[in-house]
Design goal:
The structure is a single chain. The protein is an alpha/beta fold and about 475 residues long. About 35% of the residues lie in helices and about 25% in strands. Helix 10 (about 270-280) links the parallel strand 13 and strand 14. It is globular and about 60 Å long.
Length: about 475
């Protein structure tokens, strides 16, 4: 089917809409937004949403009937690209049926594919690369105005991380992601992120603190710290890693109860950083540290710049020095050349260390990455079988950890109301949208409350508990 024709014509009068206070204001147009991928991508989405809102565009909940749709895509691995393309095709189908006037595709997929994305799907109206996000309002203006020129907006990676303030957040009001740097200087042979996100660029400390204060003023109680390489923070800007100093400043932000650290690379994990986490009342003992493998040959082929002995020593040090620490990691199985013995070594490591939280990916052959040229690529069925086997091992470890919490009272951050007197929340051991939840029974509870809960049972990966009576003023 052919797409609807787009012709140059004068912009129509701005439609009038009612804001929440009932006053009439003018809208430049309505749009729907689909955000895919990781929390770093979500922050980019929220920044674009904020810019569009300030510029007079009105966000609607459904793409059907919106003036235009924006899809912020993920291009990390093949399955993510397939998901992104699937959503794009859905939106293009709406356009063909006259249910929306246009489609803007943003983020990592355009950055990864460049001009070939429009060649593959010419009905897309505009594409915007990762670092073109600040120009999203001008792109929307061109689409609404019917302009057909300059359909691609790609900008080079900045030497300093972008300002992420003035976001229109789509996470619940009580938690948010805070990106402290952009890009990555690692050269892992399986990863295309540096090609999409550029080299590491630290966000200046004062800007990070200002953003945290803005989020706290907006009701955020939990800050989830994200980056491509969190422990590298500061090295490019200050000449030394300064994550410890940043965390001490973040601890002073009023209104923040939990600071959760994500994407910690096992290099630059200093004793000072460990001591800061262990002594803090706000930095929760939850550490997300992707290791990817444990066999030395695999680590070398992946170009991870770490080895097994150092990784084991670091994990044991973290266990010993941070009380009640919960560790999350991820592994890649089926990397080119991985032998049965090397996989068994990884499985034995998982059984021995007992990570409370763990994810497993099968190796994805990514174009333009060095691993493509490595010999001995493995069949997909071998990769899948190894992933299933490793996750089966991890399942019992996760269940045993959850069972160990039964009978204890833990603080729970309430994320949602389920029904009647049942609520959905998370303990410190559970990152939002990644780990499990806890079903809480209680009264006088609101979303965003921090509630003491007695853990009474485990249900698969989730917990069940009863809220303790809260003291009232």
């Amino acid at each position: 089917m052919k797409s609807l024709p787009i012709v140059d014509q004068p912009a129509p009068p701005l439609p009038q809409v009612a804001d929440p206070e009932g006053e009439t204001r003018y809208s430049k147009g309505t749009y729907a937004f689909v955000s895919l991928g990781c929390p770093k991508n979500l922050i980019d989405s929220e920044r674009m949403l904020g810019a569009l809102s300030l510029d007079g565009y009105s966000l609607v909940s459904e793409p059907d009937g919106a003036d235009f749709v924006i899809v912020n895509t993920c291009g990390f691995i093949e399955s993510a690209r397939d998901e992104s393309k699937g959503v794009i095709h859905e939106m293009l189908d709406l356009k063909r049926r006259g249910r929306t006037k246009g489609l803007i595709v943003a983020g990592c997929l355009p950055e990864r594919m460049g001009g070939s994305l429009l060649e593959e799907m010419p009905e897309i109206d505009h594409v915007v690369g990762v670092f073109g996000r600040e120009e999203i309002t001008r792109v929307a203006d061109r689409l609404i105005g019917g302009a057909r020129e300059q359909r691609e907006v790609f900008r080079p990676a900045p030497i300093r991380a972008l300002d992420d303030r003035s976001r229109l957040r789509i996470t619940p009001s009580h938690f948010a992601y805070l990106k402290i740097s952009e890009g990555c200087d690692r050269t892992c042979t399986f990863c295309a992120i540096p090609k999409m996100r550029g080299k590491h660029a630290t966000k200046p400390m004062e800007l990070v603190i200002a953003e945290a204060q803005e989020l706290a003023a907006d009701g955020v109680r939990e800050l989830n710290i994200v980056a491509q390489d969190t422990t590298y923070y500061g090295l490019d800007l200050y000449g030394e890693v300064r994550l410890t100093e940043l965390l001490k400043e973040l601890e002073q932000v009023e209104g923040i109860d939990w600071i959760r650290l994500m994407y910690l690379y096992p290099i630059n994990f200093t004793d000072q950083l460990i001591d800061t986490i262990a002594a803090s009342n706000k930095i929760i003992p939850y550490l997300d540290m992707p290791l990817q493998h444990i066999n030395d040959t695999m680590l070398k082929r992946m170009q991870r710049r770490v080895n097994k002995s150092d990784s084991v020593a670091l994990v044991k040090k973290l266990r010993e020095r941070i009380p009640n620490v919960v560790m999350r990691t991820t592994f890649v199985v089926g990397f080119p050349g991985e032998t049965d013995a090397q996989f068994r070594e990884l499985k034995d490591f998982v059984s021995d260390i007992k990570f409370e939280r763990m994810g497993v990916f099968t190796y994805s052959l990514e174009p333009d990455t060095p691993a493509v040229k490595l010999p001995d690529h493995l069949p997909e069925e071998v990769k899948q079988q190894r992933m299933d086997e490793l996750m089966s091992t991890q399942q019992q470890i996760a269940f045993d950890f959850s069972d160990s919490l039964v009978g204890y009272e833990l603080d729970v951050l309430i994320d949602a109301h389920v029904e009647d007197n049942t609520w959905l929340g998370r303990t410190y051991a559970d990152a939002p949208e990644i780990d499990g939840n806890i079903y809480v029974t209680g009264t006088n509870i609101n979303v965003g409350d921090m509630v003491p809960v007695e853990i009474t049972a485990r249900h698969d990966y989730d917990l069940v508990g009863i809220a303790s009576e809260l003291e009232t003023a």
